[in-house]
Model the fold of this input.
Amino acid sequence: MAETTNLGYPRIGKQRELKRAVERYWSGKTGEDDAQAVAAEVRRGAWAVQQQAGIDHIPCNDFTFYDHMLDMACFLGLVPDRFQHTAGQPVSLATYSTMARGGDGIAALEMTKWFDTNYHYLVPELNGPDPRRSGNAPVDAYREAKAQVGAAAMPVIVGPLTFTLLGKHHAKPIAEHVADLLPIYRDLLSDLYREGAEWVQIDEPCLVQDRSREELDLYASVYADLAGGNHPKIMLATYFGDLGPNWEAVMALPVEGIGIDFVRQGGNIRDFEVKRFPADKVLAAGVVNGRGVWRADLDSALGRLETIQSHVDAQRIWVGPSCSLLFLPHDKRLETSLDDDVLANLSFAEQRLDEIRTLADGLNKGRDAIADALAANRDRLRNRGHSVYNHEPTQQRVRALTDADATRAEPFAARREQQDARLNLPAFPTTTIGSFPQAGDVRSMRARLRSGKISAAEYDAYVKGKMDELIAKQEQIGLDVLVHGEFERTDMVEYFAEQLSGFVATEHGWVQSYGSRCVRPPIIVGDVYRPEPMTVETSVYAQSRTRRPMKGMLTGPVTILNWSFAREDIPRSVVCHQIALALRDEVSDLEQGGIGIIQIDEPALREGLPLRRADWDEYLDWAIRAFRLASSSAAPGTQIHTHMCYSEFNDIIDAIKAMDADVISIENSRSNEELLEAFTDNKYEQMIGPGVYDIHSPAVPETEAIIERLRHATRVLGPDVMWVNPDCGLKTRNDAEVWPSLRNMVEAAKKVRAAV
Ligand code: GLN
Ligand code: ZN
Done:
């Protein structure tokens, strides 16, 4: 009989209990006991749900207070010296929290996106103290789970290679780092074995990326080493895509089971059929989507399982999700305001578990045994085809697009002349990225609007007041290009999703973004179009309050797509182009309203890059085209800006160039030589605002330090193309930090301007 498995479960709690408990603990309102008690309750709840759903292999040690990579780093004793940890001791929750969030003058570990998801992990520092086992956390987690779910409990750990490859290293070969970690991994496996764990899941998602021959050889020797000691059976989990050219190397690893993602791309099932699967291993078949919220197509998932079963004995098949369910909200049954058609077509984490059970039953007992579920599923999928959310005019518009629609009327040089004449800005123009601090007052007004305590008119008047104040202050300190502050936006994607047709919002669809921070990604349920202007009234009002140029602020199509749950019935590229067309109309209306500069933010463009290089071009083609569709109807005299908050441009510089924005503002807080050179080496001719200070830090930058950065960037880029701005939006800072910083920035720009 085929069994069922799960690779990981959401850990924030159905009502975000963990978030609240952890934040209470951080603020000092409660002690560690409270946080520990809530955490235990969250774990207990997750295990109970999975047990009731009939999952045979239930993950444990997948829980974390902040991040699973940080947990592993702590267990391995990779606590950098600045945290003053005693080697070999378990890491306290206090130290752990400081590693995650930083402390008095102590920098946190760096944070970055987990593969191409919106989840952020903390980057382990392998260049600090030597690794040394610290505490017993994974074993304790197993014991706790075993007491509740018995033999079903399956500890999950990040594999030694994925852990190392994602970390920051010394300048020594990866193999040496891994060799230092291996004894600790062996020790852990042997403990888990002694505790009675039948299986351990070892996550190695790095296997779906491009890997060199040496790296694959290293995989072979590392797993041979682990297999040499006492250990539970190893289920090596790969996920987020195809194994591709790594297929043979992975199949040859001396492990008892291999988990394969059969959802995300088509390559794994093709390779499976052609190259087969080793007869002595268990196959954990990921056949329901851990990264999207649409109900599984049970017929086709079962078909896939049947194909697998024709080559692999049923008792060696585990039915499971494509990856951890961490990326899904907990339970769709909490939603009360979605319409029934939409709701019927969604599956959050709890619903995925039911799908897994149903599919395993179908495989074990035959299609007849799940005939009702299959029929209901078919009906729902059919209904989705003639959804009220279809919009024929939008589909036609996308079909009719030509290259001309994605091309500005004039080349940059000609546009620049017209823009210079119109805007009349000094050299080194100063501006900001858009948002300003949203203190408690903004949030409480929004809450009062939602609860009906104030009227929409009162709220509007309040937001206008905030804008007036902000505009006056920007003029006063001498910024050249102003912004309205984005006070009306909670979130740069949600704000547009709420106004565009084709999106729905959830009430409880929270997923972890990092630590205690959760987001509720909007769900794209139909064709996207713009029923009416979204930002025009606000921007036109803001422009009316000043003679200086006021930037219109839009979130770009790729970012809106990447930070939403997208439809799965049409290609992402089509969804993206629909969003782009809606924004294109917005750009035209802003122009009509007299807005001369429009910024279209694309912070998520890079993180959407496919995990393998070979797939980059296809993605970049449609993503860049989407940006161009959104921006290219602008008249030559309208200046299009874009903003990106990351600094690795070198490998996608051609695509950035092809966006053809007139000005790009970028993160450059580490004043990275390479970054600047990417722009010069590649003859980037448009204007650039390399962030002159790091907004992620509360520190106020000195004028001299900013001048130094500006001079440096100018030497590389040349004075004609330079803009002066912080490296990202200021929403998360407070006024006491923002205004002195901006004053220094303006002063620095004036000095540099005077000198050229
Ligand atoms: N305009 C946005 C802001 O300033 C950009 C945010 C971002 O880059 N993530 O908040
Ligand atoms: Zn940014």
